[in-house]
Amino acid sequence: MKKALITGITGQDGSYLAELLLAKGYEVHGIIRRGSTFNTRRIDHIYHDPHNNGETVHLHLHYGDISVGETITDVIYNVRPDEIYNLAAQSHVRVSFDMPEYTGDTTGLGTIRLLESIRKSKIETRFYQASSSEMFGGAKPPQGLSTPFEPRSPYAAAKVYAYWVTRNYREGYQMFASNGILFNHESPRRGETFVTRKITRALAQIVAKKQQYLYLGNLDARRDWGYAPEYVEAMWKMLQLEQPGDFVIGTGEAHTVREFLTEAFGYLNLDWEAYVRIDPRYFRPTEVDYLLADAAESSQQLGWEPKVRFHELVRIMVDADLELAGLPCPGEGRSILQEKFGGWHRWESQVVSMER
Hints:
Layout: E1 3-7, H1 12-23, E2 27-32, E3 59-63, H2 69-79, E4 83-86, H3 93-98, H4 100-121, E5 126-132, H5 154-173, E6 176-182, E7 185-186, H6 195-207, E8 214-216, E9 222-223, E10 226-227, H7 228-238, E11 246-249, E12 255-256, H8 257-267, E13 276-278, H9 296-302, H10 310-324, H11 332-340, H12 349-352
Parallel strand pairs: 1-2, 1-4, 2-3, 4-5, 5-6, 6-11, 7-10, 8-13
Antiparallel strand pairs: 9-12
Domain NAD(P)-binding: 5-317
Cofactor: NADP(+)
InterPro entries: GDP_Man_deHydtase, NAD(P)-bd_dom, NAD(P)-bd_dom_sf
């Protein structure tokens, strides 16, 4: 049985990746921060209490923090995983302007702490670094492996640092260390302050008459949006190759926030302009206008292509948030998942309902 260690296991990507690896027969270990409250709702459906006799436990959680190198080294040395997926970070771009030092510490230095822990532990493992399309920033689209980075936020700059130290350790210490430059990927498990989930959740609250307006910033920002469960499969595929490398993952099509609003509200026959208000506080000091993946080379290497497209993604998210609010939904999102996925993938309301 292979062992995998996931930092950021309680996040959107971490929870999907844990599901995928468990379905593939892995023993999965996750690092969570110790706190006075539990923040494990995205993985509660796959976690089994080890105190329950008779249950075989393949998901194990360890306390640790990527801002503290000693705790990371202890976990890596004791678990000795075959694969390590670094998904932990302060990942909200707008928040990184308000908390630049913390963002740099977790998103940037956290990566080198992990790489140093691997080196010092002298274990044979494969390392995945979650890089971001935000690293391209102001670069002209489409952006691919040959596109120079032009970061436009503390978050993006920290990710560029993490990208290069991953390459340095791969080349300097012959580590199997790969960067996955993932363009925006969304789902019903997306954090509620990220714009896509903010829209679909607010839409459900408006329909339920619990919210009157939705406040947003730049509606002209254009992004390459994909479906998160497919992107974690690409992460896994990167670590199954014979050689490590750097990869770009995206759909190859981009849409504005305004288009997302039109698609989401139009799905319920509503005019978004009646409900949306612009709040200058949500604009970034330096904006990123247009991110579009040039992923052809990476897709060919990995044998990976996205199944869920933009309008389908929106329907999946709207349906899930309507159900979360206790409202009837058109059901197209559920039908899309049933048609395109099987095996480990499940209808999202079974998970996001835990947020109530």
